[in-house]
Design goal:
With 95 residues, this protein is of the alpha+beta class. Helices cover 45% and strands 13% of the residues. Strands 1-3-2 form a three-stranded antiparallel sheet, covered by helices on one side. The radius of gyration is 12 Å and the shape is globular.
């Protein structure tokens, strides 16, 4: 049952992030989604923008080492409805 829930959440987030222009690939075995940050941002700056301007928590990739820079990480811990709401908030940022 949990696999189905996380798959639904993952698919909703991937669809939304790709629709706003972030080239996101599906994770293979985790309930996290890694997304590249838009051009002109680093992972801290983009995470800060999401938090302060859209109320969205995403973990800056730089916290995971040098190879994480340029990415942010989303956890699939919220409902599909909340994920869709977060994507709508990101759309309003015009990133």
């Amino acid at each position: 049952d949990m696999n189905a829930i996380y798959t639904e959440r993952r698919d909703a987030l991937l669809k939304g992030l790709n629709a706003i222009g972030l080239d996101v690939k599906p994770p293979k075995a985790t309930f996290y989604v890694w997304a590249p940050v838009p051009e002109g941002y680093d992972s801290m700056g983009f995470s800060k923008l999401l938090l302060e301007e859209a109320g969205i928590v995403a973990t800056p990739g730089v916290g995971f080492g040098d190879y994480g820079e340029g990415y942010i990480r989303f956890a699939l811990t919220q409902s599909v409805e909340r994920i869709n709401e977060a994507v709508e908030r990101m759309e309003k940022l015009k990133i």
